[in-house]
Amino acid sequence: MRTYKIGMIQMDTGGDRDDNLKRIEAFIAKAKSEDVALIALPEVMNRMTADRTIDTSEPLDGPTITFMKACAKKYGMWIHCGSIRERQAEGLPYNTTVLLNPEGETVSIYRKIHLYDVDIPGKVTALESSRNKAGGDVVSVETSIGHLGLTICYDLRFPELFRLLSLQGSEIIFVPANFAYATGEAHWETLLRARAIENGCYIIASAQTGEKRENIHSYGHSLMINPWGEIIAEIEKEEAMVIATVDLDMVTRMRDELPSLKNRRPDVYRLETV
């Protein structure tokens, strides 16, 4: 399948997991009625609380992914599950993406590699590594709907990851996210369009929106971008779904016409692809 519809869902995820999943299923049912082949969800789509002392993690065989597997099978649809906090037997959870096929089977799992750690005295301290463990694998997968690459949120700021995914063959790269408002307003669209143009690929960036803690707002502005860098679908601030058609033959054309992958100089510099 080289041309098909993707449904991108922007969420204002709250603390009630069952309610969040119910709203997600309503979007999936609507997407099914419009012949969507794949649904993409945002980062931490199942449960977010203002109180970070509450443990929102769960194992991959827990209620969220079990529910999403049932939805994938019920509606016969590929589902990119955004991410959840994946509980471990010991230690901190991972921030984890799960990709499901229309039979409700797990096709691929990606654990967020880059964690946002910053400490600027008198200005900001944010240590994601105090809440989550970093993954260590670059993940892409060949499927019947194309070669798909997986990233999460802050990974967007590391172009080498996107280049590696493209060298592995990725035609579509997912960026589920929960960008803060200030950095989102300044950088979100620019970085996403750059990643699409640099690598001649589609970017599907489903985002969180809404106020997550007092005076802390998620940026929203979910975007689908084609290999030319054009925005083909966008959601601004509301919780909503938008549908757009991807044509993977466009990836081939753009990589032929702007052959930045072929014109690399690995004799001078090198990124390890395995």
UniProtKB/TrEMBL annotation:
It holds the Pfam family CN_hydrolase. Signal peptide: none annotated. Residues 4-248 form the CN hydrolase domain. CDD domains: nit. Keywords: Hydrolase. It comes from the Bacteria. The keyword rRNA-binding does not apply. The keyword Hydrolase applies. Belongs to the carbon-nitrogen hydrolase superfamily. NIT1/NIT2 family. This is Carbon-nitrogen hydrolase family protein. The lineage of its organism: Bacteria, Bacillati, Bacillota, Clostridia, Eubacteriales.
